[in-house]
Amino acid sequence: MRAQRMRRTPLSVILGLLFLSMAATSKCLGKYHELLLQLQRQADLMQDTSTLLDPYIRIQGLDTPGLKEHCRECPGAFPSEDALRGLSRQGFLRTLNATLGLVLHRLTALYQDLPEAQQLVGLNIRGFRSNIHCMTLLLRSSSEAETPEPTQPGPGPTPPPTPPSDAFQHKLKSCRFLRGYHCFMHSVGQVLREWGESRSRSRSRRHSPRRAPGDTAPSGPCRGGARRMWPFRRDRRLMPRGHLPR
Amino acid sequence: MALFAVFQTTFLLALLPLRTYKSEVLSEPLPLTPESLKVSVNSTRQRLHLQWTVHSLAYHQELKMVFQIQISRFKTSNVIWVENYRTTVKRNRVLHWSWESKLPLECAAHFIRMRSMVDDARIPKPGFWSNWSSWEEADAQNSLGHDPLFVFPKDKLVEEGSNVTICYVSRIHQDNISCYLEGVQIYGERLDRSVSAFELKNVSFIRKKGTNVFCKVDQGGALGGIVLFVSKVLEEPKDFSCETQDLKTLTCTWDPGSDTGLSKQPSQSYTLFESFSGKKTLCKHRNWCNWQVAQDSQETYNFTLVAENYLRKRSVSILFNLTQRVHPMTPYNLFPKNVRATNATMTWKVHSIGNNSTLLCRLELLAEGKVIQQHNVSIKVNAPSEAPDVWRNMKMVSGHPTVSLFWKPLSKVHANGKILFYNVIVENLDKPSRLEVLSIPAPARSTELTLDQCSYQIHVTAHNNVGPSPASVIVISGDPGNEEVESGRVNGTEDGFSVSWKPQSGDATGYVVEWCDGPQDLPCVLQWKNLGPNTTSTVISSGAFRPGVRYNFRIYEISAKRMAHLLEKKAGYLEELAPSDNPQVVMSNLTSHSFTLSWKDYSTESQPGFIQGYHVYLKPKAGEQCPPAFEKTVLPEDSVCCKHTIDNPEQKTFVVENLQPESIYEFFVTPYTSVGEGPLDAFTKITTPDEYSHILIRIILPMIFCVLIVMIICYLKRQWLKEKCYPDIPDPYKSSVLSLIKSKENPHLTIMNVNDCVPDAIEVINKPEGSKIQFLGTRKSLTETEFTKPACIYLLPTEKNYSGPGPCICFENFTYNQAASDFASCGHFPVTPQAPPHQLGPLTSPENLLKALEQNYMNSLGEIPAGEANLNYVSQLASPTSGDKDSLPTNPPEPALCSEYKMQMAIPLGLASAPPSENSSLSSATLLGQGEHYR
């Protein structure tokens, strides 16, 4: 486990720097498949709990029986997988971008608790958002006539102001947030994978939530997964017209 | 005083029983019962705060009292704490007391009451307790939310090893609630139906993020928890010591021990406090701190290092003498020098340790890894020992006094190491202002300051790495003034210039001799020499002095106020030389006997010696003697010439006199110094003019000028002259003709007055204008015009030999002229058409004109019938030279002799008809008769 983390950390650093440099130079990959593959790999990387959640639980001493099981995702904090699947591609990307923007903001507040991991994950998220931007441009250029979609919902409603929580509550809330983040990225990875599978599947099956046999996506950090709190649309086009794979 | 105290005590003793008795009897509350009791909860510190007052005290009365406080938990009967609180009470003074609860206050309601008793020595015991106050409840549970399970205290910060009581409050009232400390179940005491308490003894530090304690309902899944922040115990700093390497900065170090930093608490801070100076500094590092050594020569230091976090303070002190805590820095730049077979010189550098410190250096010589020699060398390191030698030069730049400050580098003896920089401090003496400090890095030797009209005091110090030198102070007056002093001369010798001066004031603190070390045409390299107050002479020597260069010395007197006043100016040459060049001589005022030489542009200041005068050489023509002011001399090329010596260097003009006219002279001017005269240049040659030419010029020129003036006047007054000299109608009385005739012919000749004439009737008959206009308007010659209208009678002289044209009188009567042309009347000279033009001849010549006139006149007379012409009017004809428009266009050579007669005269027919004779035909006598008609 430790060795695996050691391998993943440099990889994530390289990827983060790579994506950052891409964002800095504002050059986008023009090939849809390559870009989609990058997004999938990034989502797989970001759903890995060893990058953020596990260190946090360890540092905060939450890895004790009786506490660990309370570090669950808060329902509604992030869009569910079904909700993401129900969005059009443009809407999905917009929602993804907005959600990750809020995650970045929240991670900044966690800097005192996870200084190193927070910095690394921040780089990953910025690189991922850069690729989202490129994918958005690619889809827009291939489908100019696509009807504009209504503003997609953000990552859940803002909770009402509460009195300042104590350190114990803060630990649990942050732990749940991080787990929700990883679950969300797992769902994102699933949806992106379906984008790649859409060519080999029939148009009717394109929206199926079922995983294809032989899917090698990493197992998700979420247990259960019955998170249908997020609204979604069924009357959308997943595949934009233009030069997308047919 | 004692009597007053006894009286007061007696009064109180009498008063208190009386009041007690009264209260018992009247069932009233005890007058000294605590009132206005208020209780508040501080959950963070788990403390109950009480405040109350005692109103019943008299004004200015102070009593020592004891308050008994009871605290109950859950219910009033469950008293858990009783404490007597003693204090001094004043009227209306609010009293405070607090109590820390081991059990978190949120877990149980607390009730507090109190009573009081006078505990003053002035009142005999036993005292009486007052009644209890009513119970006051402090219940922090009211502020809890609606969660099913709460655990307290929240985020408590304790030291490692402490005992901590935690509790939970369950709103679901279930028994299956378990609590865990870092995952390990703990067991506690049930205090109430919904409250249980757990005592954690000797808690230990687990992590900086805190120790997690949580309780949960076994089936329901409700979870409550706290984070207990257990800090490591703050340790006393160990090995606290201070040392210095330069006597400027003390570096104190210590072993800080464990870091007590947590999420809840920052790491402990360290403060260094020095008791003698009263200063303190907050250290930026957890194990060392720098302290700037005071400049006031504090030797002993008593430092206290205070370590502090939220929970406690720890301190440690040391007392030491600064000089005993010196740790010299390692010497550097160790090099062998002058290595020979048996010896070598080693050089190295050391870091200085303050001022006036002595370092002992040990030099070890190793051979084959063993020390074979040891040498101890004592090195003294000081700040510069002398103030820099400072001088100034003042000038005005754009109306502002600008001061150039110069200083000399300190000698090695006084510098005590390398001078790093110079500090210039400018202080305004006229008005308070901030000091201006300039730091000028070495090796600069000057700076420039722009000041205003105020006076300034300038301090200059030289700094090495130890410290500053003593300050050199000069005072600059804002008004440089015009210090005009007389200039003198100074003689140069082999040793230099021996300059002396006369003191002016008795309070001089010194003198400064200032000069420039180069020629005047080069930028001044200011040099100066400071001299003591009793010095009145000095020898200025410099390797830069050169022969033939003029050096100007200024002697300043330094007053007690450190202000410099110019005393004298002196100029001198180390060795005078002969002038290197001669002046450019301008020659002027050349006459036949003299000329002037001038060389005013010649500067005597920039010569290689003091110019004593000039030699004027003059070469006269061969054989001629020298002018009186000259003396004969022989030039180096053996030629003989005249020489005149001017012994005043400021006289730069000379008049060479007593020369011969129309002679060639050569001159040459050269200056001379005490060494000799200038180089022998080429002579300039001049020639004196003719002796009279100038006289002629002197006469002719004024004459020409006068003529020009007269001509201008005549031109301007030409009208007046005409009236006077040749008027259009001449006055016969003034006529020169009259005088001429009178003198020559007939002295009785008179002029006829018009009044004497009897006018006849005059008939004007058809005068053809065209012929007149033609005659008047054109300037054709008479040969081309009708020559019948005007007629002139020339007054010819009687002399036979007279050949030129004489004066004439022209008569004209256009009316009768017309008639004459028709009726051959008198006085007209019609030109017959038959007359050939050559008979007329050109009328432009006087001979021709006269001839023509004679002929026409004779013809006209001959043609006049005797019976018809009894009186003939002859009008006057303007002379052709008179400028009249009717004049002849010809230009007779003697027009001035012609006179015009506008006045008509009657001519007797007898006279007119008389036959012309050879002598009288044209004479005036014939015309005027015997004087009957002339009055």
From TrEMBL, chain A:
Q: SMART domains this protein is in?
A: LIF_OSM
Main location per UniProt? secreted
Residue ranges for the region (Disordered) are 143-168, 195-246
| Protein name in the entry | Oncostatin-M
* Chain intervals with Basic residues compositional bias: 201-210, 230-246
Where is the protein found, in the record's own terms?
Secreted
Assigned keywords, A-Z: Cytokine, Disulfide bond, Secreted, Signal
List compositional bias (Pro residues) regions by residue number: 150-164
From the UniProt annotation, give the residues forming the signal peptide: 1-26
- Family membership noted in the UniProt record: Belongs to the LIF/OSM family.
Annotated SUPFAM superfamilies: 4-helical cytokines
Which Pfam families has this protein been placed in? LIF_OSM
Q: Which organism is it from?
A: Balaenoptera musculus (Blue whale)
In the record, biological process GO terms are:
immune response; oncostatin-M-mediated signaling pathway; regulation of cell communication; regulation of signaling
Record-level Gene Ontology MF annotations: cytokine activity; oncostatin-M receptor binding
TrEMBL record, chain B:
Biological process terms in GO annotation: positive regulation of cell population proliferation
Fibronectin type-III domain location: 387-482, 579-691
Region named Disordered: 912-935
State the UniProt keywords alphabetically: Cell membrane, Disulfide bond, Glycoprotein, Membrane, Phosphoprotein, Receptor, Repeat, Signal, Transmembrane, Transmembrane helix
**Main subcellular localisation:** membrane
Identify its membrane topology class: Single-pass type I membrane protein
The residues forming the signal peptide are 1-27
Q: Where does the record place it? A: Cell membrane
Gene Ontology molecular-function annotations: ciliary neurotrophic factor receptor binding; cytokine binding; oncostatin-M receptor activity
Compositional bias ranges of the Low complexity kind: 912-928
Matching InterPro entries: FN3_dom, FN3_sf, Hematopoietin_rcpt_Gp130_CS, Ig-like_fold, LIF-R-like_Ig-like, LIFR_D2, Type-I_Cytokine_Rcpt
Q: Which GO terms describe its cellular component?
A: external side of plasma membrane; receptor complex
Q: Which Pfam families match?
A: fn3 (PF00041), LIF-R_Ig-like (PF21177), LIFR_D2 (PF17971), LIFR_D4 (PF25552)
Membrane-crossing segments per the record: 695-716
Family under the similarity heading: Belongs to the type I cytokine receptor family. Type 2 subfamily.
Task: Quote the subunit structure annotation.
Answer: Heterodimer composed of OSMR and IL6ST (type II OSM receptor). Heterodimer with IL31RA to form the IL31 receptor.
Q: This protein is called what?
A: Oncostatin-M-specific receptor subunit beta
